[in-house]
Structure formats: structure tokens, C-alpha cells
Amino acid sequence: MSVLRKKPPVSGNRIHKMGSALREDGVVATPDDWETYLLHQTEIVGELVKQLGDFADSNSAVLLGGQTMEENIVPGSGTYMVSGRPKTKISLKEKLRHRQETPLERIQDVAGARLDCDVTLTQQRRIADELCDLFTKCGATRVDIKDLRDGSHSGYRAIHLHLRFPAGFAEVQVRTALQSHWANVYESAADIFGRHIRYLHEENQVPLSLAARKVVKVKLLHDLSAHISQVEEKRDECSSVHSRDDLDYDMKHRQEIISELESNIQFILNLLDEEFRKVRASRRK
After folding, report:
1. pTM of the model
2. What domain count does the chain have?
3. pLDDT under 70 in the chain at which residues?
4. Same domain, yes or no: 155 and 243
């Protein structure tokens, strides 16, 4: 039987108590339960990644451009990548403290997986719908699709599948090439300026320090996120128009402009990523 269909090895009451302790002082009084809990979350992630990988392999020609899994997903590559991870203890403590009313057993993304792929917005939604059916067949008792591509959400844009299995909660993200690249660079920024910048969209979050608020790079990343949204909408519009002889020239011109905009965004993100890498490296010395 798949791990997704099995009840968790640690009771909800014990998970609740571990979460309360983690939120208060960061110490878990029952390390054996904690290790069992994390191992179970890791097993859930493994099954999610397997299902996503099988889905991508069998649908690559139809949904994902016919290419194969690659580490770097860029616009025009037709590639995709599957990844997953359970949240770390530090990340969980941070999230529990930001969400005082949410107990550990109801944190949606302790077990999380991603499908990053070079697709349009329309294709992205179609993939999310297909995955909804897939995970229902895998035993999900509830699947909620959260489209986070229009709101700010601290700049993060993706489609989230919030899943509930007998094994517990899980989350799967479907991201386009630019959405994925932006999120990875923003995570690098959070390592430097503070993890709390990821929660800017939430109410009652701790405000940025004056120094961090003045950081031009953070504002630039937020501006880039909005720009990515606009460019992807234009790409989606172009892909939905059936080509005709009298439109071919105009359409090709629009596509060239969009490709240039995507390349410019990629270039800026690469520059920021390299800068953040150098800062992190200097701090480790």
C-alpha cells in the first residue's frame, strides 16, 4: 500500500504537542517522535516526486514540450524538472511562529514537491487539473487548487495543489520556467536579508527592518515578479492565436519581442543570483 494511503505513525495529538513546543522555544521534548514524524514526511515527499516524475514522463510530448528532465528550466527549452523536500526544523519553527493559529498537523507544506516546466499559463493550468485527477486516484480525500499567479504573495507565483491524504497534508507546486527561476533567486535573497521577507504578503507579519527595507535588490525582485506576470500573459495570448498567413509576420514579431523580454529577465535574475552567491560565500569565510 502506498504511504499516501496509510495513517501517520505519530498521532495527531503528539504532532500537535511537538508543534506547540517548537513554536514556543524551538525544542522538541520527544526526539524519537520527531524523527519518526520527519521520516514519514520524507516518505510522503518521495511518493509525490515519484508520481510527478511518472506523470511528466508519460505526458511530456503532450503537456511539456516533448523534452526531458533538466536541471535548468529556461523559456523555450521545452524541459521540466521534478523536485521535493520536507521542511526543515528551522523552517517549520519560523512558519509556526508566523502562523500562531495553525497547529503543526495542519501545516500544508511540511511535505512538498514541485513540477517546474517550460509551459504557458494555459498549459500550466491544464497540468494542475491533470494532477488533481492523478492525486485523487492516489488516495487524496481532498484536492484544492490555489492559483497564486495574479496576487503578489511576496512575488511568488505558481499554482499550488493542496492535498489531503490519509497520511496527512501535502503540497505540490506547478511553476513555469520564469516563476521557478524567480522563486529560487528570492530564496537566495531571503538567506541574506532574512527569511521573513517570504511573508510580506501575510497580515500581522513582522515588518522588514529599516536596513532591509532600503535594499534595492528586494524591490527589484518584486518588480521583476510583476514583469514576469505581464510577459507570461503576453506569451499565453500569442500561443492561443491560430496562425494565419496575414498574421504570421505580426505574430512572429510579437514572439520575438516576448523572447527578448524573457531573456532580459533571465539575465537580471542570473546577475542577482550570482551576487547573492558571492555575499553568502563571503559570510562563510
Report:
1. 0.87
2. 2
3. 61-71, 152-154, 195-215, 241-247, 285
4. no
